[in-house]
Amino acid sequence: MKKKQINPLFMGLIMIVLGVILVVYSGQAMATILRITAVGFLVFGTVGIVGFFLGKDDDKKSIPKLFVYAIEVLAGLIALINPQFIMDIYPIAMGIIIAIDGLGNLFQALSMKKQEGKPWKAMLLLAVITILLGIVIICNPFSTLNVLTIVIGVVLVYDGLTKVIAVVKK
Q: What percentage of the chain carries pLDDT values higher than 90?
């Protein structure tokens, strides 16, 4: 095997393993990802706050940045102390964002209707689908989160397999 092929092969195998883990252990995988993210927020927020008070960088002397650092620390603490709370609100928040985006697309489609030749019907259909998906996520957040985790896992397995097959066929 050539040296150039080792990296894509290795990445493909890692993607397959991660994908299988996400599919088989979707609930535990999300909790682990949440913990890692929480620690990241704590670290970055704490480093930002310390840097702000030590005055190492003039750019860090901004009060809004200090506020962002404090929110990062707070979010990290909440996620570590009560991860279920974050897992409960995350899909709902995403559902709201998706539904609002769909509403924006709906208004855009309706304004496109006035212009001839624009594909406003397709845009309208996609906007309605987006709104409905947002509502489904809001109404059934836990199942949606598990399904999303499984779909991501399947996509990772597929992507990993395509990388492995591409390397082997060369």
A: 7
